Hints:
The complex is a heterodimer.
Chain A: H1 2-28, E1 32-33, H2 34-44, H3 53-65, E2 69-75, E3 81-87, H4 89-114
Antiparallel strand pairs in A: 1-3, 2-3
Helix pairs in contact in A: 1-3, 1-4
Chain B: H1 7-31, H2 36-47, H3 50-61, H4 64-82, H5 84-112, E1 124-130, E2 137-138, E3 140-141, H6 142-151, E4 155-163, E5 168-171, E6 176-184, H7 188-192, E7 198-199, E8 217-220, H8 222-229, E9 239-242, E10 245-252, E11 268-272, E12 288-295, H9 301-317, H10 322-327, E13 330-335, H11 336-339, H12 343-377, H13 379-387, H14 392-428, H15 443-470, H16 473-479, H17 488-523, E14 534-538, H18 551-565, E15 569-575, E16 587-592, E17 595-604, H19 608-612, E18 615-619, E19 632-636, H20 638-644, E20 658-663, E21 666-675, E22 689-693, H21 704-707, E23 712-717, H22 721-735, E24 743-746, H23 747-754, H24 756-790, H25 792-800, H26 805-833, H27 835-839, H28 850-876, H29 880-885
Parallel strand pairs in B: 6-11, 8-10, 17-22, 19-21
Antiparallel strand pairs in B: 1-2, 1-12, 1-13, 3-12, 4-6, 4-12, 5-6, 5-9, 7-10, 8-11, 9-10, 14-23, 14-24, 15-23, 16-17, 18-21, 19-22, 20-21
Helix pairs in contact in B: 1-2, 4-14, 5-12, 5-14, 5-15, 6-9, 12-15, 12-17, 12-24, 13-16, 14-15, 17-24, 17-26, 17-28, 18-22, 24-28, 26-28
Amino acid sequence: MKREREVYRNRIELLQGTLDMLVLKTLQWGPQHGYGITQALRTRSGEVLQVETGSLYPALHRMERHKWIAAEWKVTEQNQRARFYRITAEGRRQLANDRSRWDTMVAAIASILEA
Amino acid sequence: MIRWRGFGMRKRELDEEIASHLRMAIADRVARGATEEEARTAAEREMGNLPLAKDVTRETWGWVWLERLGQDVRYALRQMRRGPGFAATAIGTLALGIGAAAAMFTVVDHVLLRALPYKDAGRLVQLQEGGRDAKTFFYTPWVDLAQWREENRSFEDMAFSTGMSGRTYLAGNSAALLVGGTEVSPNLFAMLGVNAALGRGLIAEPPGFGAVKNAGTIVLSDAVWRSAFGGDKNIVGRVVRLNDKPYTVAGVMPAGFRYPLDRGANGQVWTAIELGAKDQGRDYDSEHYEVMARLRRGVKLETAIAEMATIQKRVAAQYQDAELRDDHRVVQVERYGDSLIDTNVKKALLALLAAAGVLWLIASVNATNLLLARSMARQREIAMRGALGASRGRVMQQMIVEGLVLSGCAAVLGTGLALSAIKLTGAVAPIHLNVDFSTHVDFTILAGLCGLTLLSAVLSAAWPALIAVRAPIEPALKQGGQQAGSGRRHNRLRSGLVAVEVAMSLTLLVACGLLLRTIYTLRHVPLGYRTDHIIVANLSIPSYRYVNKNVTATLYQPLLERAQQLHGVQAAGLISEVPLGQTFNIMLSLRMNGNNIVAALKTASPDIQPIFGFKMLAGRYFNHDDTPTSAGVAVVNPAFARLYAPNKHDLNSLLGLTVWNLRKDTPAKIIGVLDNERQKSVDQPSQPEVEVCLCQITPGGSVYNPITMAMDLAVRTQRPTAEMIPELRDLLRQASPELANSTFSTMDQIVEDSFGSQRLAAHLLEIFGGSALLLCVAGLYGLLAYVVTQRTRELGLRIALGAQRGNLLWLVMRQAGAMLTLGVVVGLGLAWASGKLVGGFLYGVKAHDGWTLAGAAVLLFLSGMLAAYLPARRAARVNPMEALRSE
């Protein structure tokens, strides 16, 4: 059990920067609940990215604490009660920030790999 | 918003959120054509370990530690309920240690770190002049302090004061009240940073000659205002009489304000100093003042000391008289708080604090041992927790919280113990020791107590916890049962701890033994006078009533005659100060027979000799033939004779010598040598002393004023003290109402009180030593009882194989003996090393006294063996069948 937890933590850390960015990006299209975010990420990535529950919810709650996103309980179209997250102004700034850092990094890595 | 919602609610919310996630995942799969069953399994597999996910999520809230702490505290309380005996022992042990330390710390805090009732008191200093030898310091004449004020840059302000001479009586609404009176410079209160609570107090005016704004005004302390004037709100502006002189009340100081701090317990009054002709020079006649100053913000004490040293060179140069110049060479600058503490008391208290610290250590070690024993017994439980995934840190935390809960309970109990101990000690402590035994608890003490508690918990719980969690999990689980994990290493560790306890207890016992022997020796020092059946009244004399009268003829002689006629009084006499009284001191410096002589001066009536049974070594004592008009007489003591007799081997050579002139043309000739050794303290020889006959002290004589200011009435009677005192008090009241304030004691009590710090230390050490012994015995018993329980099977097997029961008894006793021997050997070393600490308080016994060391060691060893006998007997009585079957 203990080792398992370590693994979870590691995965969160590996994904930390990108997962936050991806979640924020997903929320830019409109408020969404946790399951919806998982589905959106999966379809948009062409079924490549599968976000673990054990990573998603800690990330969502952490971002909520940072006030990048806000949450409220609503009812889905299928009449399910779910906690919907929406991006805040702070979150948008954070996203822009992450995005530019990501772009710089991708460009840098690409230039190394292609040299 | 969410942040403020309750923890439980958020937890439920998270559960619901994850549940809705699961529902949606299942619904999606069902919509795509899977059966309900398949969908649930697939979704659950995909989502993984949900409780863990929730756990990790909750951790992001940053609240989990609180939740866990709550769990741990609840768990610890449950543990305590399950094993009340264990909890009671651990808490009792720790409470004893914490209580002793807290009590000593409270007293030390009040005495050594006491909060002065002034603003920012840390910057207040006292300045005194002294000779180059820097041993004796004197108050300061005005001209010197005026120069200091003028030239210094270190101090914000400098104020000065002087106690009113003689006893001061304030006429109140109903009766005259004995008060502490001080004349102060008008800026004193402002410098102390305390304003009058009522009225405007003294008007700030530059101190100097002809300062008049404050003339004839008086400021009262809160206590005086309440007791003498019933707290009259319109007191300001009223005229009151101080020593029969009228003063206008200018203000009342706030409650708790005192200056000087060490005088005037009944209440104080202050008037402004008026400088006069005596303040213009630097000679023997000059008035001398106590000088206080406030350091400028940011100026260090060392800086001020250096600056004052420079200034003082210029000041001293202005002294014309060479001897006086030598006496004023240097300036001592001392924090006011430090100047109030008696070094002897300070040393005694610090030594006792150390003793209390040792007791606390013993208690902590004992508690550690107890917890260690329990952690062994709980090894299986701890291993199980580890196997279920609890991290080592988590188990550690839980066990330390358990320790904290135990220590917390102990701290509450210990505080109660400490407070009642202080109250009890305060009731028996000698008054003149001037130690504050009030049970007032302030922030420092609370903080200290919390620190002690935390430290106790960490010390007693952390180590066992560390050992417990470091133990490998598997063997503990495999073996199971009570017999598991009784590693030799751990038993050795626990034995070591018991030995440490024994060693520390022995140190305390030795210190206690040494002090008891000191007290015993002091009580048996031949004093040279009788102390039984003597009642002593330290008279509180209203000197002001006798300013223009002959106090000897109008007060003392009639008083004496009436006291002698009182029923049951065998003899009554007057003396400036009874031996060991520590109430009065006049030093006489004069020339006799071509020698410079320094001696204490006293006056006494003839009856003093039979009352105390003083022996005469030569000549005679005063008698009723000595009258105001007969030839002047004086009596000296052996210390005087040893230093100043013309022929050291013949005391008679002193007789007939003139000591000095009582009055012009009335020489006082030595008529006898009185054997009064031990007049200042029992453990020190007497200083030279001259006594003159009371009836010959008349107005106009050279020492009339100082020597008639203080007087003790001594009465020899066979009647019970409690019966005599009211009658004597009545008699005094009739002579003058103020005399009813006199304090009564018996000579036996005065001797007992003179042991002061030794007696206090001995009493406290009896308690500390006794507690240490108790803890030690309990620790030893606890360990052996545990070991015997653990080894039941082995013991049973031994018996089954033919061991004699005596062998088993011997087996356990041998183990106890080894621990005790180790502890005693180390303890003797410790006691030897700590000899220096107690050395200063001993009399008639050396710090390395063999008898005391041996006695304490034997006492400890025997008590320990006695404690070991019970578990040993149980070991010998083990029933082999039961022991083997119980597995």
